[in-house]
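Quick start: what a row looks like.
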Amino acid sequence: MTVGSTCSGASAVVARMTNGDRAGQLATRLNDVFGKPRAYLDFITPGIGSDAFATDQYAVIWSQVTWCPDCSCFTDTNDGRTYELVYTGYNDKSKVTTLITITQADVNLYGKPRWRIALDWANNIRNYVNGWNCTKSPDSPNPPTLQCSGYICPLEIPTGDATTSGTVVATRYGEGERLPRFTMRNGDIFHTNDLTIAVHSSLSSLDNKWVRITNPTNGKSVVARVTDRGGSTDAPIDLSAGGVGVYLGVRRATVTYGPP
């Protein structure tokens, strides 16, 4: 789903999610996104935003991706989706708009951890976008095919927390390679800057769970959703490159996994 003009619906989001100065900031950032030609709003996801990238904070982000008929693209031949090449700008945080960062005050108010609030708020924005009269067809004879009858689908909410832990080798994916498919095992579209993990079948108990991944070398950790099947027997965890891998400083390294 793309947009081509400013939408008054931003006020509906901020009224339900936050207030005060942060509400104004969120509205400004949302309307900036809505004003970009062919902005692909499916890329509104949880993430580690540019204004919180050096800290263990969670945010709702928009990766600056447009649907493009006339630029370097990746195409998913299974369903006709075509994305601008900047989709894989995993290490360029100038290509990520931080819509709102989750604070400890939010945790205290809602009684949920930051990663869950980020997912809920991302879904709130995605849901409200579907109800706003601000969409337009992409400037192309072959617009992308979207699921949910043309709507932006909600991101899948994990069924619970991981209950096992261990130490394994992890790799990362989504940093420029051509992926075999964009739709993940849980039905979501893969976004490299989202906080997601793919696991090998040997770790299937982690499917659709919240999992904390820690890099013991630098002590950084992040809680992410297990959304897909991937990895290998010798490296059974695959991290989304922009969302998890870069933040943890992991390309291929030993990590620990466990409950949030």
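That is the whole record. Residues 53 and 247 are 7 Å apart (CA to CA). Helices lie at 10-17, 20-34, 104-110, 114-131, 241-248.
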